[in-house]
Structures are given as structure tokens and as C-alpha cells.
Amino acid sequence: MEVTLLVQATDDAFRTLENARQQAIGLLDTAVGLTAETRSVQKKNIQAIFRGAQETRSKLQNFIGTFFLMFVFWVLLSGRFDTFHLTLGIICCLFISLLSYDLLFANIRIGDYGLVVRRFLSYAPWLIYQIILSNFHVAALALKPNLPVDPHVMKFKTKLETDISWVTLANSITLTPGTITMDIKDGEFYVHALDKKVADDLDTGEMEDRIAHIFMEADHIYVQDALDVARIYGAIR
Amino acid sequence: MWPEYTEQSDNFGGKNKMIRVTDDVIIKTIARVLTPFIQVYALYVIMHGHHSPGGGFQGGVILAASLILLLITHGWAETKKKFSETKTAVFCAVGVLIYTGIGVLCIFMGGNFLDYGKLGGLLMVIPPEARSLGILGVEIGVGITVMAVMFSIFFDTSTGGNSPEDETTSSLR
Q1: Cα(B107)–Cα(B115) distance, integer angstroms
Q2: A84 plus A134 within the same structural domain
Q3: What is the count of structural domains for chain A?
């Protein structure tokens, strides 16, 4: 009798142990699966950030984005903060957003837009400095009696990817005295340069690098970019 | 060095050099980004016409200019989504209707044509405020009509009266 009880107890103990082991294995499997899943999602997110994957935003997101931008512009223009004029502004901005929600954000990428705006603002002083430098250079060229200009058209392939960064680069080139962007065809810039020095300055590609940095494009990753991505990565987690 | 000029499909069979998709990425992008801002500015000019310089006519012209900018850079296929020839006819009539409607309403309220002060009873406000609101309403009407007519003038002169919409409707008949 006692022996039977003992055997039963041992059996029970073994069964409990087996159940516990099975449960533990199940839990571990789930944990491993979840970890793998999270890893792949994180990997995809990071890849998206680095490649600047193009995202087709929904109609509603574009609509809301356009509406807020337009309303800020309206308030700046109007300068009247009574209920009547603000209501008029909301109605007008809703109408405009309905009419042209697909124009402003037609070709946009994943990313931190506050960062893009801040980088653009820090790019502007550098550009102004370059404009002043080449201004003096071109003035010196024009004042020299023998007029040592050597006008020619140069052609280079850009590494930038979106239309907005192309346009930023093209307008920066045109704003700098001595160089004018004539055309962009399939990512190739046709630039008219006044002499060899301004053409060489452009050929170093510093301007292009800085614009790639603003819009987080191409294979160009600065140390600053890595730090920024680390911050975004933390936010995702 | 320069690529050959190619006829775009959006060019009404190569007849119209004005309304076509431009192949210049700078012009296209700048036009795309600026159009909503121009439109908001146009509505600002219309809505503040009774406080500051501007008004229905000027605002309507700016609004039409934004649509024309879109038409000469992005072509007819893109502009058709926003504004078409049938809408032009409707908006022309609606603007005039708003204008005369407000004018005739003043006659019904016991005043002269466009005598906004008499609208005060209807809008539950004092006559000076009713005048301000009445002028705003009239200017919205003027703006709508001017916008539609300006767009129509540009479209008709640039296509020579052979609009793509006419062709589709005549083939249906």
C-alpha cells in the first residue's frame, strides 16, 4: 500500500516536472520567435532610414499636412486673430487642402522633418558665405583689364535622388555668382561656369555633399548622421 | 549635347506648345511646391478685400494664375483633376448668381440693389457690420467668376477652341 502510494507520488512528481519542462521550452521558443521578429522589424526600420525609402503617404496624411502648413501661412499673412478671420482662414485652408493636397508632399521620404529643416537652416549661412566669396572672385575677374574669363559648360552626374534636393542644388549653384544651372536631364546637371576656379570649386562636390546631408540621401553618411540615426532608433524602440 | 525634343502625349497631338508637361525638373518642382501657397494668398486677398487693398478681382486673377501655372508645367491631365472646362462654366454662373443674389436680397429687404445695410435684420447684426459682410459675400462671388473666366480665356486662346473635352463629348454623341 505504501509502496503503491510512493510510486504514484513519484509518477506525479515526474509528470509535473515534464509539464514544467514543456512549458519552459514553449516559453523559450516564443521568446526566441519574438526576439527574431523584433530584430527583423528593427532591421527594416533602420534600412528604411538609411536608404531613405520612399513612402506613399495616405491622402489623409497629405491633407492634414497641407492644411496645417497653409493655416500657418494664412495666419502669417492675415495678422488678425479674431474668431471671424480665423474661421475664414480655416475654411479657406480646408478648401485649398481639398484642391491641392497632392502637390506639396508628392515626392517625400521617411525621416525626421524637424531635422531636415534645422539642417537646412544651418546650410543657409554656409551658402551665403560661398556666395560672398565667389562674388569677390567674379568682381575681380570683371575688373581685370585683360578679362581672364574662360566660359564653358560642364556636365556632371549627381548622386542625389529626389527632385527637391536636385532643385536645392540647382538653385544653390545658380545663386553662387559665376555658375548657372542650365538644365537637369536624368540626374545630369549642365552647368555654365565663368572660369576654371569656380568650376573647380563646384567639382569638389562639397555643396552636393552638404545637400545630401540635409536630405539624408545617397550613400553619404556623416558622423552626425550616425548620431541622428541612433536617436531615431531609440525612439522606435 | 542636348537631348532631342520629344512630343509629349499630353500635348494635344503636338499642336499645342503651351499646355504640355515640361521636362524641366526645376520648373516642375518649384511650380508644384508654390501652387498651394499662391492659392492661399489668392484667398487671403479675396477675404481681406474689405479691410486692405485687394478684393474679388485681384484674388480671382491670382487664383486663376495658380491654375494656369499648373497647366503650363504639369499639363492638362494633372490639372483636369482640379479644374476642368465644365467646372469653368458652372463657376462663371455661380459667381454671378452670388453677386446678383445678394443684390436682389437687398431689394427684397426693402432697400436698393446692393444696399447691404438692409441685410442687418436677416443676419442679426447692426447695419455697419452687415455692410462689411455683404461686401465680403459680393467679393467672393466676383472672385469665383473672375477665376473661372481667366482660366477659360487662357485655355481657349492656347487650345484655339479645340478642347479635349469637346472631342470626347462629340464622340459620345
Answers
A1: 8
A2: no
A3: 2
Structural domain span for residue A194:
113-236
Residue A181, SS3?
Answer: strand
Answer with the one of A51, A78, A104 that is the final residue of a domain.
A104
Give the end of a domain, one of A104, A126, A161: A104
Report how far residue B91's alpha carbon sits from residue A182's, in angstroms, rounded to the nearest whole number: 40
Alpha carbon of B38: minimum distance to chain A alpha carbons (Å): 10
What separation in angstroms does the CA of B30 have from each of A35, A77, B160? 46, 21, 28
Is A8 part of a structural domain of the chain?
no
Q: What is the pLDDT along chain A (237 residues), one digit of tens a residue?
A: 777 888 888 888 889 989 998 988 888 888 888 888 887 777 776 666 555 444 556 788 888 989 999 999 999 998 888 899 999 999 999 999 998 888 888 766 666 677 888 889 999 999 999 999 999 999 999 999 998 888 989 998 988 888 888 999 999 999 999 999 998 988 889 999 998 888 888 888 888 888 888 887 766 565 566 666 666 666 666
How far is B108 from chain A, CA to nearest CA, in Å? 27
For residues A119 and A147, membership in a common domain is answered with yes
State CA A55 to chain mean position distance.
11
Do B36 and A66 lie within an 8 Å CB cutoff? yes
What is the rounded distance in angstroms from the CA atom of residue A167 to the CA atom of residue A183? 11
Distance CA B46, CA B6 (A): 41
Characterize the bridge pairing of strands A152-157 and A179-185: unpaired
* CA–CA gap between residue A57 and residue A111 (Å, rounded): 13
End-to-end CA distance of chain A: 60
User: What length does chain B have?
Assistant: 173
Does B41 contact A at CB distance below 8 Å?
yes
pTM here is 0.74
Domain ranges across chain B: 25-160
pLDDT in tens, B142-167: 999 999 999 999 988 887 766 665 55
Q: A109: number of CA atoms within 13 Å, CB side?
A: 21
Give the span between the Cα atoms of B131 and B43, in whole angstroms.
20
Which cell numbers in the block locate residue B167?
Answer: 472631342
CA distance B173 to chain A (A): 31
**Closest CB from B1, B2, B37 relative to A73:** B37
